Amino acid sequence: MKYLEEFRNPELAVRLLDDIRATATRPWALMEVCGGQTHTIIRHGIDQLLPDEVELIHGPGCPVCVTPLEVIDRALAIAASPGVIFCSFGDMLRVPGSERDLFRVRSEGGDVRVVYSPLDALRIAQENPKREVVFFGIGFETTAPPNAMTVHQAKKLGIRNFSLLVSHVRVPPAIEAIMRSPDCRVQGFLAAGHVCSVMGTGEYPELAARHRVPIVVTGFEPLDILEGIRRTVRQLERGEHSVDNAYPRAVRPEGNPVAKAMLADVFEVADRAWRGIGVIPESGWRLSARYRDQDAEHRFQVSGITPCEPAQCRSGEVLQGLLKPSECEAFGTVCTPRTPLGATMVSNEGACAAYYLYRRLAAPAAAVPVSPEASPVA
Questions:
Q1: pLDDT reported for residue 301
Q2: Hey, which end of the chain has fewer CB within 10 Å, N or C?
Q3: What is the domain count for the chain?
């Protein structure tokens, strides 16, 4: 209770907002790179409480949303294969592929199961030795360690009918790609605290120095967000660009050494495609050679699938921070949580879903026409 009282203190919120208003003397654009932070911001109206000088841009921080369409289509092909039990977290079942989603595959007879841990999928493999069991491993550095541990455990126990469909991505290369985009307006970053709790902060100082942007590691409560914004604006006003840990109760500079060692054993860094953005060099992981036999993509030979992105979906621009969800012509009309065009509308951490949940009854922003010159970040 003391924790909840501390981080829901309205008097402290007022003081933080007053400090931000007093500090900001010119326009600043900040990006949060975490879908959980985006939902906190929109749910509590933090972006609307800030002074006009401070704009929040929603970045590619939703792990479901950045899973590329070709990987979704590979998942659908594997899930529809005879004799396969396809396991996934529930938020992936409604994510649209080129023609259908995992719910549709299940309705057509595919054995698609919702699990709450990759170890659940491993247990299912033990209980069904004559069937292939595949777990859909997606996410940032936060979810990669338990998936790595499960692959390690499967190999150790000799469970040969378990494999992992990998779509893990890394945050620092995404920040690098965003800053290199010719359309970039970002002047400071709120870094995701849960990612840094695993990986530490060692990869960020070079980014901050090279691009002259402050990077503030931030938590997820409303007061965490306000404190992160306050520290970022303070650096910008002073002309500073360093890494600042505003989430010390969970983040240490070295991160989690045990989790990092597991990642280094099971995975290797690789180029990775991000949905709506493109390929970002060294921005993801794949299973290392030692564990290649447990790679579902390799086991099922589904690498030749050509995806087809809906023409009306502008989630790529949303993920790059070039477009607010409510500025998309399809938002809330053609594209809703029941009929999503892209993952940003259906994911629990998607920016479009946040706007639909908390802002759809507000006055709509003017639709921004598609620009043929708009450049992807990669």
A1: 80
A2: N
A3: 2
Q: Strand 215-218 vs strand 84-88: parallel, antiparallel, or unpaired?
A: unpaired
Are residues 92 and 224 located together in one domain of the fold?
Answer: no
Distance separating the N- and C-terminal Cα atoms of the chain = 45
Q: What pLDDT score was predicted for residue 116?
A: 95
| Per-residue pLDDT, 361 | 63
Residue pair 13/223 in contact (Cβ under 8 Å)? The answer is yes
Q: What are phi and psi of 305, to 5 degrees?
A: -80, 135
Tokens for 133, please give them. 């069991």
* Residue 189 in domain: yes
Which of the residues in the chain have pLDDT under 50?
A: 1-4, 363-378
pLDDT at residue 8, rounded to an integer: 67
Q: Are residues 263 and 164 in the same domain?
A: yes
State the residue range of the domain holding 235.
2-63+172-245
Counting beta carbons within 10 angstroms of the beta carbon of residue 166, is it exposed (0 to 12), middle (13 to 18) or buried (19 or more)?
Answer: buried
Q: How far apart are CA 97 and CA 122, in angstroms?
A: 25
Cβ neighbour number for residue 270 with a 10 Å cutoff: 16
- Give the pLDDT of residue 362: 61
Q: Cβ contacts of residue 356 below 8 Å, gap of 6+? A: 325, 331, 332, 336, 337, 345
CA dist., res. 49 & res. 17, Å (int): 8
pLDDT at site 198? 97
Question: Domain for residue 215, yes or no?
Answer: yes
Q: Which tens digits make up the pLDDT trace of 169-197?
A: 999 999 999 999 998 999 999 999 999 99
160 in the same domain as 264: yes
Sheet-wide strand order for 267-274: 111-114, 84-88, 132-139, 162-169, 278-287, 267-274
Q: Report the pLDDT value the prediction gives residue 376, as an integer from 0 to 100.
A: 39
Residue that is written with structure tokens 């369409």 in the block: 69
Q: Which of 245, 265, 286 is the endpoint of a domain?
A: 245
* 100 located within any domain: yes
Cα–Cα nearest to 91, from 161, 43, 39 = 39
Kindly state whether residues 151 and 193 are assigned to the same domain.
no
User: What is the domain-level CATH number for residue 191?
Assistant: 3.40.50.11750
Rg of the chain in Å (alpha carbons)? 21
Q: Are residues 146 and 213 in the same domain?
A: no
CATH number of the domain within which 122 lies = 3.40.50.11740
Does residue 292 lie in a domain region? Answer: yes
